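Sequence, please.
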């Protein structure tokens, strides 16, 4: 390449497990503009004021240093003329000169060097350098962190050469000048200080830095000068996941400000790299070389997006056009989108893939200013328009004070939509108008019709008969490592049930690199997943945004689009059947010639692998030269002499080779392989660059199973079609864990990390993948392939035709080893039951010595570093036990008996048990007669919010936010109806017998600032509880944990991938997440580097089994320890792994009353086990020379690599030093928590005003009233007050309307969160996101201010995600609410006048009355409750629903009465004109209502009603109805299965 990337100035180098590439940002954004383009100084001032109001969305390290803030303005011509006159610089007329803002090195000689480069380049490009200006700044106002890296800031003035005709050409010249300057300075060894060009333009200028919002105009004196005027200001404050200073990384960038994450970044950047070599444009002409590389890869994701946007616009597209290409709306499944817009998106999908992720982007080129929201709409975006032509746009409402009577419109932006203000025309251009105009510029539909080929249009070729005969199949299966377990448990279930097989109880077989058996290369790769900094998505309930469409053939030139650009073949799925592949190979189009390349190597020696790869790369290049555009990599033809190169190695290696050569976009890579068979395999292949995959051996194996009768009931064709469908669905699910919605953007995105693959292999063939511990070489990869190959082909005359049993998920005598096997299970159970420490030691020895299952097995203690101490001087067992916790298992996944036994035991020893996400029965909050307490000290709050009420939260010592779970990070769950027994439904606020869905966590925790908000909400709901955030181990988790610590969590749990007791897809159990040892070590290191380790408690869990495990965790940095699988085994679990079937033979993981009678566990057994573990910890501590746990934490020098690691044929290649790395910063700070986080609750409106005012009500139940002003910075208002009521009066609360408070203004986020009965809170003004979150019986009202003249039902008055997880109470909203309204409502009655997309998702109870329109994807996953909609246009709602299980009905008499009474209340509380009109004309209007009710819910309600009429009590009726409905669902085969399981 020859190009030095920009230096990461101010960031630490890669060290230990820390890598600067893992950093993330999130933020608060906004802009203010005068629509008519009139400049004023007040706009600059208001922009800065807005930033200060968004302070809680930005991050700061301490009181004086922020993560970065900035402002983009118009170049104020009058201001710069006045300033330049003083310096004797003569400026030409407006827009004929450019102003550059430069961050220069502080060192004077370096600065002079830089200046001479700049002056030379400006001259070479034929422009005139008018002069330099030192920007006046005041360094006394900024923090010391910012001072350390403060640059010397200068402005540069460049005059336009006479020959340049248009301003556009001048901007292009400036682009080339800037690119050349950046390159020259990066390559100059004499310049080491900071150098960066924030902006260089004729119209816009950027002032930014490592500042807090209020410091901007104190630091940059220009901005406080009244003479500086601008028609707009674009502002941004940054919340970074770290505390490392960086001036460059503050926004705005040159064209945009960005709030969000680009999930597909790695792939987008690779594809842009491949394209920049293949593209060429007349626009750039001979200058093209000068501007490469287009993307500066050391920037943040936002900076790279900015680079690409800039490139697309300078090559001739308008700004909105480029934005529509990068962030398209989801067009593929949208039945309502029409041409020309549909054609525009479809055409541009042939040029590039979307940059996918939750994103809100605001952009400007100085002439137009606009903003666009991503396809999922996962970012808030609100705006006001005033009568004096101002538009105020921001993440929150109420950020700039405006008199209500001046506002003429209040709106929010929907998913995929654009808002554009044309400052030259002086008007707002609507989304429809701008997109229709851009989409009609070229005849896109005509081009597509003439050029785009669908797979179904290719002539049908009968596939050549490739079916293998049965004994040949077995040979191939052996050569590719198929096992009996895989065929009968995985492939069979995909072919018959059309879905990924489910497993349970986590993963306790060894990692691939520790296994004695040869492993497939895929098993070394672990899927990455979204966590905190970006949300996963629900690809099932929100499939409207997903697309599996794939295009084959050469890609068009990005810079010169023509009709030829869409000469591609469209596939609906990248996983091909035999027929599909035959059609591709045999097609007759000259543009789509296919060539097959063999991926075999000589089986006589592992040395043959590397030359075979080199040959493959060579052949591919030759084929491209010859004009082939489809390359088929095939491993057909394996025999005695030839083995197959692992398909993943071949594809990824070739993909990267072609990217480097600039040839990748000229061909499609199709893999024809016998090796790939499950969803993880397909995801790896696509993620590393395959365009399509044909798994021929998997398909033959299914045909073979049908023939042999292993698969019954369906024919081969159906079985194969099911299998292909299950495969692509599985890939979509893996993509959605990372928040990616299209296969097009997932391709080549490399969303994986490697555990146990050597650095050389990764750098060469899997470039850019993290492999923190290095590992095996190419030679070992070849060895593993050949071991399998020899088993298949080189046996003696005796040919063994049976497959290996496998035993990877379930223990089998001849299969893979497991930590929990019959021997260890039995020994542990006996030890705990007989209270025998001797037996426990035997168990502990088996675990740590027999085989290495976990990374900690490769570590050994470094005794003798300190003298040993006597055992009686070591901290006592009782005090160690306080650090123990039991894992989060929900009541619902395990039985009442097992759940309560755990709680009693943990409370007896002073540890903590965890409620899991299924709520908790309030009867457990009071102690039993014998003094035992069944209450769980830790209450979990997960995405489902089941039973999360004010009462639940008040009864906790620790509240755990479940961001992800070890067994399946990035996924939600599903509790099928037959497991929702009445007592489960009761605690979860749901209906018995009706299935429950836990969504992935993307509703109120879709970014780091939202997590900080949820932490704040929960802290307000119970100020005494510690707030714990549960993360799953992955590369980069340390960086995320730092962000979480800055978000003020008290405890951070790093969960290992091995954990997980609940049901989840087998591919997730095994392939997502990494061992806790790596994640914990990285987190401890990164927190120390950021100086935050002493503010949080670190906890870890994941198959913790012995005292030795705990000591290793402590030495790696953990202070608290979680146990889940081991305690279940102690209670009787025998690892049958049928938890998900409700057939547990020992009564632990089941709700079935018959099976529960078999439960034989007792709290004494758990107490015994925990005592043993603590005793073993003390013995090891004594030997190591530690007297207390605290002094042991983080002391990695007491660990060393175990001898056995050096003997293992694969493990010996691991480099464990990064695990044991101690950062420089560790020497001067505490290794464990010593100070509390400052949550600043004393500043809340509650403690300052509301609680004192409500005293009479709290003390004596006396009614009180009051009114208060409110602003957007007053967040979670009413929550602390509510917690005091609940503490005193329990779930009952106070009588209705005891406390009535009214607020005037814009309410901050989470207004009225968790408000209990008796609390009535009203806002006159508007409200932000999370209004009424978790409402627990209170009453909330929001209505326009009395002085407002707006029509309420046309305005957005409340934000996104209102009433999320609300369990009871009422809400009245006089206006429209945003997206994701009343998600998971389980009992609130609400009236609202219109909602955005995804309304009433996952709802399980309550009544929602909507007097207006609903957005896309309404009521998806809704399983209970009723929605009533007043339809202006009949049939509109039905078009917006995609859920098939809903009934649309007209209103019955009872329905009418209910709706009418709710609307009456709505009028009483809000005076809504719309509601009044509806009531006044009831005889006409009542017929316009429709009722939406889930089918299953309605049937259950009717059954229960039927039994009540027979005279049964409520609970008897519920159980009878439940039994009746589950009997209908259970088939005979189920009972058969149950008998088998028990026997």
């Amino acid at each position: 390449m020859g190009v030095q990337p920009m230096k990461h100035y101010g960031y630490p180098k890669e060290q230990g497990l820390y890598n600067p590439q893992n950093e993330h940002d999130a933020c608060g954004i906004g802009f203010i503009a005068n629509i008519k383009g009139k400049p004023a100084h007040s706009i600059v001032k208001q922009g800065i004021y807005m930033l200060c109001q968004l302070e809680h969305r930005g991050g700061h390290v301490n009181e004086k240093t922020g993560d970065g803030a900035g402002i983009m303005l118009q170049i104020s011509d009058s201001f710069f003329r006045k300033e330049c006159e003083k310096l004797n610089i003569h400026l030409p007329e407006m827009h004929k000169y450019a102003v550059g803002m430069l961050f220069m090195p502080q060192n004077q000689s370096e600065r002079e060097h830089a200046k001479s480069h700049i002056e030379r380049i400006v001259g070479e490009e034929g422009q005139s350098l008018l002069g330099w200006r030192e920007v006046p700044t005041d360094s006394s106002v900024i923090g010391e962190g910012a001072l350390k890296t403060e640059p010397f800031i200068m402005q540069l003035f460049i005059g336009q050469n006479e020959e340049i005709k248009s301003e556009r050409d001048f901007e292009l010249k400036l682009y080339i000048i800037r690119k050349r300057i950046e390159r020259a300075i990066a390559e100059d060894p004499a310049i080491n200080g900071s150098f960066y060009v924030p902006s260089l333009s004729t119209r816009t200028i950027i002032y930014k830095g490592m500042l807090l919002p209020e410091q901007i105009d104190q630091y940059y004196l220009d901005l406080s000068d009244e003479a500086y005027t601008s028609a707009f200001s674009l502002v941004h404050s940054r919340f970074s996941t770290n505390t490392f200073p960086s001036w460059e990384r503050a926004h705005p960038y040159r064209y945009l400000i960005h709030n969000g994450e680009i999930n597909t970044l790695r792939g987008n950047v690779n594809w842009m790299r491949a394209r920049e070599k293949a593209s060429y444009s007349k626009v750039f002409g001979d200058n093209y070389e000068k501007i490469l590389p287009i993307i500066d890869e050391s920037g943040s994701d936002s900076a790279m997006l900015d680079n690409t946007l800039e490139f697309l616009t300078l090559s001739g597209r308008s700004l909105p056009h480029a934005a529509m290409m990068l962030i398209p709306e989801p067009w593929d499944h949208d039945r309502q989108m029409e041409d020309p817009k549909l054609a525009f998106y479809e055409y541009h999908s042939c040029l590039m893939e979307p940059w996918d992720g939750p994103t809100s982007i605001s952009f400007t080129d100085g002439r137009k200013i606009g903003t666009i929201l991503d396809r999922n709409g996962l970012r808030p975006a609100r705006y006001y328009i005033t009568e004096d032509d101002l538009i105020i746009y921001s993440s929150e409402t109420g950020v700039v004070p405006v008199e209500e009577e001046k506002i003429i419109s209040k709106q929010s932006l929907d998913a995929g939509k654009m808002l554009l203000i044309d400052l030259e025309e002086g008007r707002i251009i609507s989304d429809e108008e701008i997109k229709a105009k851009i989409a009609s510029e070229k005849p896109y539909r005509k081009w597509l019709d003439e050029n785009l080929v669908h797979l179904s249009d290719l002539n049908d070729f009968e596939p050549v008969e490739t079916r293998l005969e049965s004994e040949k199949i077995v040979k191939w299966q052996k050569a590719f490592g198929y096992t009996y377990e895989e065929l009968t448990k995985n492939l069979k279930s995909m072919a018959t049930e059309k879905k990924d097989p489910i497993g349970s109880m986590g993963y306790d077989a060894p990692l691939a690199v520790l296994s004695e058996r040869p492993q497939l290369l895929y098993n070394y790769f672990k899927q990455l997943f979204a966590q905190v900094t970006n949300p996963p998505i629900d690809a099932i309930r929100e499939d409207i945004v997903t697309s599996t469409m794939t295009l084959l053939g050469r890609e068009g030139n990005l810079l010169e689009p023509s009709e030829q650009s869409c000469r591609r073949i469209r596939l609906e799925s990248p996983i091909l059947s035999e027929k599909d592949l035959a059609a591709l190979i045999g097609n007759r189009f000259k543009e789509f010639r296919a060539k097959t390349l063999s991926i075999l190597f000589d089986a006589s020696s592992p040395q043959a692998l590397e030359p075979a790869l080199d040959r493959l790369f060579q052949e591919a290049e030759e084929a491209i030269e010859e004009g082939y555009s489809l390359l088929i990599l095939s491993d057909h033809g394996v025999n005695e002499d030839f083995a197959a190169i692992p398909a993943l190695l071949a594809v990824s290696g070739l993909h990267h080779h072609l990217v480097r050569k600039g040839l990748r976009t000229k061909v499609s890579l199709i893999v024809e392989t016998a090796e790939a068979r499950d969803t993880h395999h397909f995801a790896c292949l696509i993620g590393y660059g395959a365009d399509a995959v044909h798994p021929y051996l998997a398909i033959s194996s299914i045909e073979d199973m049908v023939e042999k009768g292993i698969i019954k009931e369906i024919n081969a064709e159906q079985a194969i079609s099911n299998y292909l469908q299950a495969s692509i669905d599985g890939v979509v699910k893996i993509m959605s864990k990372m928040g990616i919605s299209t296969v097009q953007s997932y391709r080549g995105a490399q969303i994986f990390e490697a555990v146990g693959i050597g650095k050389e292999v990764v750098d060469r063939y899997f470039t850019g993948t993290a492999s923190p511990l290095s590992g095996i070489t190419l030679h070992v990869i070849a060895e593993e392939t050949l071991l399998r190959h020899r088993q298949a082909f080189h046996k003696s005359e005796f040919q063994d035709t049976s497959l290996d049993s496998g035993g990877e998920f379930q223990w089998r005598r001849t299969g893979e080893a497991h930590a929990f096997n019959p021997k260890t299970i039995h020994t542990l159970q006996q030890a705990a039951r007989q209270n025998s420490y001797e037996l426990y030691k035997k168990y502990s020895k088996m675990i740590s010595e027999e085989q290495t299952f976990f990374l900690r097995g490769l570590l050994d203690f470094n005794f003798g570093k300190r003298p040993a101490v006597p055992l009686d001087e070591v901290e006592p067992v009782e005090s160690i036990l306080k650090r123990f916790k039991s894992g989060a298992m929900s009541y619902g996944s395990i039985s009442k008996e097992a759940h309560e036994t755990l709680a009693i035991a943990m409370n007896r020893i002073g540890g903590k048990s965890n409620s899991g996400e299924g709520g908790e029965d309030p009867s457990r909050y009071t102690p039993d007669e014998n003094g035992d307490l069944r209450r769980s000290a830790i209450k979990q709050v997960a995405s489902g919010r089941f039973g999360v009420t004010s009462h639940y939260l008040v009864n906790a010592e620790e509240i755990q936010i479940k961001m992800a779970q070890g067994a399946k990070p990035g996924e939600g769950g599903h509790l099928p109806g037959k497991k929702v027994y009445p007592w489960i439904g009761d605690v979860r606020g749901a209906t018995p017998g009706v299935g429950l869905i836990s969504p992935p966590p993307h509703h109120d925790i879709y970014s780091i600032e939202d997590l900080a908000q949820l932490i704040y909400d929960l802290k307000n709901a119970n100020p005494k509880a510690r707030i714990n955030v549960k993360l799953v181990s992955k590369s980069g988790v340390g960086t995320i944990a730092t962000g979480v610590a800055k978000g003020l969590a008290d405890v951070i749990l790093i969960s290992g991938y091995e954990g997980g007791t609940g049901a989840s897809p087998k591919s997730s159990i095994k392939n997502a997440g990494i061992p806790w040892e790596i994640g914990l070590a990285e987190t401890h290191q990164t927190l120390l580097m950021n100086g935050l380790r002493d503010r949080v408690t670190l906890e870890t869990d994941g198959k913790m089994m012995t005292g030795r495990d705990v000591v290793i965790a402590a030495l790696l940095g953990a202070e608290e320890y979680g146990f889940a699988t081991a305690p279940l085994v102690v209670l009787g679990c025998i690892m049958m792994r049928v938890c998900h079937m409700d057939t547990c033979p020992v009564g632990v993981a089941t709700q079935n009353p018959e099976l529960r009678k078999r439960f034989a566990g007792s709290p004494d057994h758990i107490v015994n086990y925990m005592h043993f573990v603590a005793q073993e910890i003390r013995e090891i501590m004594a030997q190591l020379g530690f007297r207390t746990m605290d002094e042991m934490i983080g002391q990695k020098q007491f660990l060393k690599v175990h001898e056995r690691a050096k003997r293992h044929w694969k493990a010996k290649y691991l480099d464990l030093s990064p695990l044991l790395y101690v950062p420089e910063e560790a020497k001067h700070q505490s290794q464990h928590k010593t100070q509390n986080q400052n949550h600043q609750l004393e500043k809340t409106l509650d403690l300052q005003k509301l609680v004192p005012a409500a005293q009479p009500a709290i003390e004596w139940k006396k009614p009180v009233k009051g009114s208060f002003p409110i602003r957007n910075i007053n967040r979670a208002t009413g929550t602390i007050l509510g917690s005091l009521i609940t503490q005193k009066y329990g779930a009952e609360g106070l009588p209705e309307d005891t406390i009535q408070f009214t607020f005037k203004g814009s309410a901050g986020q989470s207004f009225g969160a968790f408000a209990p009965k008796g609390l009535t809170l009203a806002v006159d003004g508007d409200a932000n996101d999370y209004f009424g979150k978790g409402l627990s019986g209170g009453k909330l009202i929001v209505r326009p201010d009395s002085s407002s003249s707006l029509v309420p039902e046309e305005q957005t008055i409340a934000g996104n995600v209102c009433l999320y997880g609300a369990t009871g109470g009422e809400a009245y909203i006089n206006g429209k609410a945003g997206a994701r309204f009343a998600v998971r409502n389980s009992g609130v009655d609400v009236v609202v006048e219109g909602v955005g997309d995804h309304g009433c998702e996952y709802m399980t109870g309550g009544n929602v009355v909507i007097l207006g329109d609903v957005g896309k994807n309404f009521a998806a996953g809704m399983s209970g409750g009723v929605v009533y909609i007043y339809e202006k246009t009949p049939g509109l709602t039905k078009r917006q629903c995609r859920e098939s299980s809903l009934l649309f009905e007209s209103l019955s008499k009872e329905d009418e009465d209910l709706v009418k009474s709710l609307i009456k209340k709505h009028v009483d509380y809000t005076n809504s004109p719309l509601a009044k009109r509806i009531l006044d004309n009831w005889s006409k209007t009542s017929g316009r209502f429709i009722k939406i009710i889930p089918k299953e819910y309605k049937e259950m309600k009717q059954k229960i009603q039927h039994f009540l009429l027979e005279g049964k009590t409520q609970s008897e009726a519920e159980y009878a109805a439940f039994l009746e409905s589950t009997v209908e669902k259970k088939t005979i085969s189920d009972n058969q299965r149950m008998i088998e399981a028990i026997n």
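The radius of gyration is 32 Å.
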